[in-house]
Q: What sequence folds into this?
């Protein structure tokens, strides 16, 4: 399978093929190397994120969202124009075609597994059964955790400085 991840050190996006044999992931842009815990990657499964080691992963359709939105927008505009010209059949024809293309795309695209914590994307695996769909609660927990870490790192090494003033 393939992982797309943001390097924890230089924050650039990298892409790597991984399998059961992978023990280390190197960043393309800097010296950073992530050790891959053994047993994380199966032949057709993923037990945990190999970048941040989190076990919280969710499945989502690997749908090109901009393309989906573009199709809907174009379809809506075209059907509006047809409607204004009193082309009733054309209007509904366009709407149905737009919907059909969206459904077809949805069926064709494969699933990807995404890490809640670091956002790494895993593609090219058929058995994602061990992971659930997106859960807003879990996402929120990780978002708050990240926000806290961000706040801490911005405060600098001496967080008591403010209290004295
Ligand atoms: Zn890097
Ligand atoms: Zn992760």
A:
């Amino acid at each position: 399978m393939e992982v797309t991840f943001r390097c924890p050190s230089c924050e650039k996006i990298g892409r790597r093929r991984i399998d059961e044999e992978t023990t280390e992931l190197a960043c393309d842009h800097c010296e950073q190397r992530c050790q891959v815990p053994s047993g994380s990657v199966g032949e057709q499964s993923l037990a945990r994120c190999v970048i941040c080691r989190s076990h919280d992963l969710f499945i989502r359709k690997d749908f090109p969202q901009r393309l989906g939105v573009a199709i809907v927008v174009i379809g809506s505009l075209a059907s509006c124009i047809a409607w204004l010209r009193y082309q009733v059949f054309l209007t509904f024809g366009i709407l149905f075609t737009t919907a059909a293309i969206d459904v077809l795309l949805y069926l064709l695209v494969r699933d990807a597994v995404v890490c809640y914590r670091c956002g790494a994307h895993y593609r090219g695996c058929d058995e994602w059964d061990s992971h659930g769909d997106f859960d807003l609660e879990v996402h929120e927990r990780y978002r708050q955790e990240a926000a806290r870490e961000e706040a801490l790192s911005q405060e600098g090494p001496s967080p008591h400085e403010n209290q004295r003033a």
